[in-house]
Description:
CATH superfamily: Hemerythrin-like
Strand content: under 5%
Largest sheet: none
CATH class: Mainly Alpha
CATH topology: Four Helix Bundle (Hemerythrin (Met), subunit A)
Order of helices and strands: HHHH
Mean pLDDT: 90
Radius of gyration: 16 Å
Structural class: mainly alpha
Number of strands: 0
Low-confidence stretches: 1-6
Shape: globular
Helix content: 55-70%
CATH architecture: Up-down Bundle
Amino acid sequence: MTxxxxxxxxxxxxxxxxxxxxxAPMDEIHEEFVAIVGRLQAAEDAAxxxxxxxxxxxxxxxxxxxxxxxxxxxxxxxxxxIDEHAxxxxxxxxxxxxxxxxNTELCRDLVAHLVxxxxxxxxxxxxxxxHWMSKLRFGGKPVVLRRNVTPR
Length: 152
């Protein structure tokens, strides 16, 4: 590992209340995603393949669950949301293939992009789904109480 490849343990993504959307099943899935991405950011090169496998398994389940909620509840803007999930899965699959050939730089680039992508995806697409699911289940939008929130 060269100095430019060294993991940055201090800046690894961590869960905070800033990510809460108020629909507990979704928040739990997102917390797991953030934990895996944080471990990827802090990982040595040798650990990347196993963590990318874990990320791929998680995203398949994560996106399948959200896609199922959208389909079963007839969520109106589900098309672009489902398409974005498919694009992320495609990128992860392609990067895992490159990583198997030794391309750790591309893997770290994908992880950095996931860190940048997730807050916007959650704030715009997933929050709308969380509101929709809460309205169907409880009759209104979720109330989200956030503690000790610092800007992302």
